[in-house]
Amino acid sequence: MATPGMLYVTMEPQPGLSLDQFHEWYNNEHGPTRLKMPAIFQTGQRFQATDGERPTFLATYDVTDMAILTQPVYTDLRAHRSPREAETIGQVAVTRYLVDLQSSRQAPDFVDVGNLPDAEAEGRVLVYVDVSLQDVEGAEAEVVKWYEEEHFGMLTKVPGWLRTRRYRTSSIDTGAPLRIVTLHEYKAVNGLGGPEHKASMDTQWRTEVFSKYLGKKGRRTYSLFYVFGAGPRDLQHLAPLPASKAFVSSDAKTATTPASETEGAVLQSYITTPDGLEIPYRLEGNTAPDAPTIAFSNSLLTSLHMWDAFVAILKRQRPNYRILRYDTRGRHAIPEPHVPATVEMLAGDLRTLLGHLRITKLDALVGVSLGGATTFQFALKYPKLVSKFVACDFNIASSDANTAAWKERIGVAEGADDGMQTLAGITVSRWFDPQTVANQPDATATMIAQVAANNRDGFKYGCQALWTFNLREAAKGLRVPGLFVAGENDGKGALPKAMEGFRATSGDGSIQLKIVPQAGHLPMYEQPQSFWEAVEHFL
Question: In terms of Cα–Cα distance, which of 383, 369, 400 is closest to 481?
């Protein structure tokens, strides 16, 4: 039987260690690495002391089964630290505690901080109490009885009380002295120190328990400092670091680059969906934790770098934005067994990414082609998660002709070892306006290389999202403000005409359609400045 519990760690950075380095390492490497293991760690958060005592910082992790912490899946994390982690943690006084959960009670309106937006979780108070026992027979039972039958019940009457949990030294922590630990959570505005709280600490039963059964008592108070997600997201502490503190993980899947004189901080990492798909993402722009976020959904066969030129313009013109880009399902290897993607699945992938990054609502979502359909589906299905959207060069429904064309393209990709390269040349020449091909050879070659690098199986199953979807009926109920954009010569002008047709039947019909001249299927790539001029009024 599983024994749930908690790993909690107190930390005090030593003089000489930059707090930015300490926080950036913990927030972008140490914590997320553990939250990427949901079978072990359910939640993780950091607290900062409010009582003036040291250690200043506390991290807590809810563990599904304490026995797992003795197994290589976890112990290898500590045994094989990155050089950056080893350097940083060597300058921090660290004490780890392992405790088994014994009981828990919570207020009717309690919500775990992991499920709250940062703004609502901010300021949550944690009171930590640990006691040792006198060498008296039955001491633990008597203390527990008092806790459960009197003390905890009185604490529930303290204004702002949210949750109380009782733990004892874990059975896996062999040799550690027995300690009873209680954690009490309160809202930022609470009655700690008030009459109800004082009453809970001034009863005859409490006096008897303390005199007969308790040894030492420790008490600390903390305020919530940071909540981990499985995706690192802390640009605030990354940006001020010197260039020498740039970091690349051993698997090269996570990289953090501090700001320079010419470029802002960049954070690249990945999250994993419930079906095992790894989604790489890139976070940059405004470093404030509460900055409005704009996300980009790329087209089939391309990567998040298809937005590079446009994002450079956006960062200059809208420095208020935090910018999120990610690779759509199908760009890379996909989970076994392979299953066809759907537009709804792709919208769900984005929702999962936002959840891991603790982004509760996008200020804007921009997508093109398959990403445009994903964007439209996301606005339809998750209207509370996005304020506005820009959907580019997409169709509202599939057709038999398009399905047949995609099947032919799969045949090209699978027809030879260099099938993806062959498909890339055909695809880009079809996508781009003829003037782009003639006048921008470097951009054309770069896009061909980007398409050719797509995973073959990913393409085969990813393109099937465009085979059997129809959003026409759902579009009538659209409630999120949107903008349509199309390249003037996409499909030799056929796609802009199609978009004009379903624009009028989407939502209340107020969506505008903007046309980017001298552009085909990827106007933000072919003509980034003209694309900006088409969307700047909306963003």
Answer: 383
